[in-house]
Design a protein that fits this description.
Helices cover about 25% and strands about 30% of the residues. A six-stranded mixed barrel has the order 1-5-2-4-3-6. It starts with a helix and ends with a strand.
């Protein structure tokens, strides 16, 4: 194996590990339509793959427009023992979730349905920018 090939493989491995290392563990719930108005963009429609951030993540509006990739990692209750679809979803911060805990985000109903069975209501997740 040539030196360039080895270097490429090493760089690829480091990039993958870096991505995983920066994921934030938490929980997600969902909210349904209407998705506007939002705290970030008022009545501007930003699509249906959006999220409301907890107070810390929202950072007084500093997170508005930030995109996150969210992945379901498991259930939070026995109601739906295997809620995850095995997919991830990319969402944009458009709102504040004032009732969310510091480890929680609130996904739009459509975004939640991509990564988990909506009957679960609340799931464990990893998310990163």
């Amino acid at each position: 194996m040539g030196l360039m090939t080895r270097a490429f493989i090493l760089i690829a491995m480091v990039a993958c590990l870096t991505s995983v290392a920066h994921a934030i563990a938490g929980q997600a719930t969902f909210y349904g339509p209407p998705l506007v108005p939002s705290a970030c963009f008022g009545f501007e429609d930003r699509g249906n793959l959006v999220m409301a951030a907890n107070r810390n993540l929202y950072a007084n509006g500093g997170a508005c427009g930030t995109r996150y990739r969210v992945t379901c990692t498991g259930p939070t209750n026995a109601g739906v023992p295997q809620p995850c679809t095995g997919r991830s979803v990319d969402v944009t911060v458009v709102d504040l979730c004032p009732g969310c805990a510091s480890d929680q985000i609130d996904l739009s109903q459509d975004a939640f349905a991509i990564i988990a069975n909506r009957d679960a209501g609340r799931i464990l997740i990893n998310y990163d920018r």
